[in-house]
Amino acid sequence: MRRAPTWLPLAGALVVSISAPACAKAPAQAPPPEAVATKAAGEDQALPPGVDLSKLDDFSKKVFFRIANSEPSVCGQAQSLIVSAKKNCGRSVNALRYVARLVEQGFTDSEVSEGLAKRYRPIAPRKIDISAAPMKGNPNGKITLIEFADYECPHCKRFQPVLREIVEDFPNDVKLYFKHYPLPQHTNARLAAEGAVAAQKQGKFWQFQDKLWEHQDDLGPAEIEKVAKESGLDVGKFRQDIASEAVKAHVEKDHTDGTTAGIQATPTLYINGREYTDARDSDSLKEWIKDELGH
After folding, report:
1. pLDDT value for 4
2. Does domain 127-269 have CATH number 3.40.30.10?
3. Cα 212 from Cα 151, distance rounded (Å)
């Protein structure tokens, strides 16, 4: 029996200035800067516990306090980010740490404001179907990760060890779903995706996918069949499935879901429906997940 679609809220456009390199579908357009409060900078320069500015020089500290005093709370109160953080809003404390890191890295006020909006501000939800997507991790985890990727995208390949580490480090909290988004300029990406769906039909999606990343430089038909053999698949059934309309429709559905969501590049990752827009290293991703867990 066909399962009913499982839907998850989905966040908006990619923050190109803060994100790591990606395989782009088209030039990404930055969204308009978010409006911020007009409270004068410098009104409050007393830091809440847990916020460290030791890595900032004097100029960067001025930038930090200007933003901390002008940005509104991320906890819903009608007060500045820094005041909110000192009144036991844990998310505002985390947001201030994030501001300090972005300022240290040289981002402008407007870029930091945009980063805060993408990470902490309410975003109009969209929907994404994960009913047919392969999943690993804890099915009951509080954190749902959804990755859209292309098998010929080198940035996607480099992101895989980070995602594996996250699943291993949060065994009780994280579940990861995968959606196919082959880019038109990658000539073998769609066939590789169809091969992965065929492997999923035999219950060996993740084993097959791991080997696809290993063979990324050569994903022609012969190499993909070799990957199927190395993954222990029934090759006869694999040949039938990879040529079937059902498998092709699965990949096309994933791609359509990504296009509808506004994906401009791969990899694209969603954390509980919010698009991940920070650097694609394990420490940065762990910070986002801890925010979602309320740590």
Report:
1. 47
2. yes
3. 7
Q: How confident is the model at residue 154 (pLDDT cuts 50, 70, 90)?
A: very high
Can you tell me which residue has the tokens 């429906």? 273
Q: Are 10 and 272 in contact (CB under 8 A)?
A: no
Q: What is the mean pLDDT of the chain?
A: 87
| Separation between Cα atoms, residue 289 and residue 201, nearest integer Å | 31
Q: How far is CA 170 from CA 138, 197, 276, in A?
A: 9, 26, 17
Q: What is the per-residue pLDDT across 185-196, written as a single tens digit (0 to 9) for each? A: 999 999 999 999
Domain ranges of the chain: 35-122, 127-269
Q: Between β-strands 268-271 and 143-149, what pairing exists: parallel, antiparallel or unpaired?
A: antiparallel
Are 37 and 80 a contacting pair, CB within 8 Å? Answer: yes
Residues 6 or more apart in contact with residue 48 via CB below 8 angstroms? 82, 85, 86, 93, 96
Amino acid identity at 143? I
Q: What is the pTM of this model?
A: 0.81
Task: Give residue 19's pLDDT.
Answer: 52
**Alpha carbons 152 and 189: distance in angstroms, whole number:** 6
Task: Give the residues across from 128 on adjacent strands.
Answer: 8
Determine whether 76 is exposed, middle or buried from the number of CB atoms within 10 Å of its CB (0-12, 13-18, 19+).
exposed
In this structure, how many other beta carbons lie within 10 angstroms of the beta carbon of residue 7? Answer: 14
Q: Which two tokens stand for residue 190?
A: 């769609």
Whether the pLDDT of residue 89 is over 90: the answer is: no
Angle at the Cα of 81 from the Cα atoms of 75 and 83, rounded to 5 degrees = 100
- Reply yes or no on whether the pLDDT at 243 is more than 80: yes
Class of domain 35-122: mainly alpha
Q: 129: which strand partners?
A: 7
Distance CA 84, CA 87 (A): 5
